[in-house]
Amino acid sequence: MQILVINAGSSSVKAAVIDPETGKRSLEMNAERLLDAPLIEFSDGTKIELESKGPERAIAVCLEALKDKLKDTPIAGVGHRVVHGGEDFDRAARIDEEVEAKIEALEKLAPLHNPINLRGIRAARELFADVSHFAVFDTAFHQSMPRRAKTYALPKDLMAEHGIRRYGFHGTSHKYVAAEAARYLGAQPKDLRIITCHLGNGCSVAAIEFGRSVETSMGMTPLEGLVMGTRSGDLDPGIIPYLHEQTGLPPEEIDELLNRQSGLKGLTGVGNDMRTILDESTKGNADCQLAVQVFTHRLRKYIGAYAAIMAGVDAIVFTGGIGENSPIIRHRASQRLSYLGAIINEDKNATTRLSETAPVVDFSMQHSRVKLLAVKTDEQLAIARECGKLIEKADAVNTLPTIPVAISARHIHLRRETVDALFGPGYELKVKKWLSQPGQFAAEETVTVVGPRNTIERVRVLGPVRSKDQLEISRTDEFFLGIDAPVRESGKVEDTPGCKLIGPAGEFLLEDGVICAWRHIHMTPEDAAVFGVQDRDIVEVAVGSGERSLVFGNVLIRVSPKYKLEMHIDTDEGNAAEINTGEEGVLQETSGSGTLRKRRVMEA
Ligand code: ADP
What we know:
Blueprint: E1 3-8, E2 13-18, E3 25-32, E4 39-42, E5 47-49, H1 55-69, E6 77-82, E7 93-94, H2 97-105, H3 114-127, E8 132-137, H4 147-150, H5 156-162, H6 171-184, E9 193-199, E10 203-209, E11 212-216, H7 239-247, H8 251-260, H9 263-268, H10 274-283, H11 286-309, E12 315-319, H12 320-325, H13 327-334, H14 346-351, E13 360-362, E14 371-375, H15 379-392, E15 403-408, E16 411-413, H16 416-423, E17 431-434, E18 441-450, E19 455-463, E20 470-472, H17 475-481, E21 487-488, E22 499-503, E23 506-510, E24 514-517, E25 520-523, H18 525-531, E26 538-543, E27 550-559, E28 566-570, H19 571-576, E29 588-597
Parallel strand pairs: 1-6, 6-8, 9-12, 12-14, 15-28, 16-19, 20-24, 21-24, 25-27
Antiparallel strand pairs: 1-2, 2-3, 3-4, 4-5, 7-8, 9-10, 10-11, 13-14, 15-29, 16-20, 17-18, 18-19, 18-22, 22-23, 25-28, 26-27, 26-29
Helix pairs in contact: 1-3, 10-11, 11-13
The structure holds adenosine-5'-diphosphate.
């Protein structure tokens, strides 16, 4: 399969024909200077200089030249990089009139990018009319960020009215390099906490916790976060009105100043190329020295913050032109991170050269618990793969069986030792009701949970005993108890908070184990084959029908021969979906049913 990938920018168009399976490129096109005299270069050595046809036509003119080259190459589909997908897109989408209209409507959020991306889409759809076109969004991967990470502290109605929230960008690259890093480490992204630093002309960091982006440094626009080539990154918002008062600059010029005249360029006056800045800083240019310090200081600040957010980190990844090629920046960003468990191997870092054959290099010490990796990013290949998957899966939806939905009220699983402490040595839990998952029961016993703010009585114990204590509560319970519990899958209780438990025979201090259960579906391997999913895939489920239907995203698949097909959501989610909740402390089936749309959040 050959996919044509197009990235249309304001002054350049890049395109490549890629086999998504092998990553092999049969043709690449790079067109520059679109606004005055387009110069098109192809990977086969051909160069075409064109007379300006004006910005409106420039992209189309380049794509026409490309089509001419592709006369004998069968294309299976076209993938377009689109910068802003807003609230609407958490994955790549097949482009139709409706998708085009949505991308157009997002122009107000990304005035510099989406209109140009759309111009590319429209020109390409005309020229390559007999194949499907797909939009792959820079923001999509970060849609999984929790609300706390997406939300600015502004008046809520104002934010809702204008779509103001954090979206994040570079998602295609962050997702790709995290998957590459995991593969290099012989693991799956869903087992790792990874901090990815994409350092190109634009720079951003992402915290990828067990395969999902939970934080990223760019916000509503790509201006927030790190110091970049020409963008300021974070700054006190008070500077903007101050600048306006002091200089009289109107908002659009301040925007231009922050986006195009700041960052490394603004700090140094020698331009935005990190190579020049590093060279000048070694020669003693004090502005360049400071710029390098500000750049890496900000980066270190984010690395520390993201380790804190994920309560630890397994790998820190450097990518993009700077991250892949600059040992000095990697050194400055990753020295003295031993408090996190990351110990740099300076020799390895200095000699690291990424290539097609060595796209990942580990530059940490062998005994470093956290791996420091330089990873070559490949957004074009990532886009081609997304398209390839969509083409293959085209008609798989709507032929799937429905899934019963059950609501889990708050409950606790206990270890043998904890049962002893709470109910007396050797105490055996009594079965109150067998649950739908074979062998699992709601016990007659309950415990009292004591949080820093409040106490909840009669929290149902589920049996049989397990190897780890685990208290599963809803967001509402969290706020009531005063505990900030992470969303986790069952069994993953490392680095979670604890609380006090009281039983009839005594108290027990739970050191960790309080989680907000990740909504999930239990199924057998046979069910998994029917749905075409694997253990720990992440999917989406539509529950109910008509006006009351609700789509639950981020639903985790759990596969075991011991399971019975059933989706578990908590009481908050049940209430939101207007599904009746069961008796307290007992898992109860309801009549809801679901259809499943599959989404592999990350490829292994
Ligand atoms: P884009 O974000 O436009 O895709 P790139 O990822 O290609 O950009 O990154 C461009 C940046 O990478 C530039 O600032 C360039 O100076 C920097 N860069 C490339 N090679 C090196 C190097 N060997 N040392 C330091 N910086 C480098």
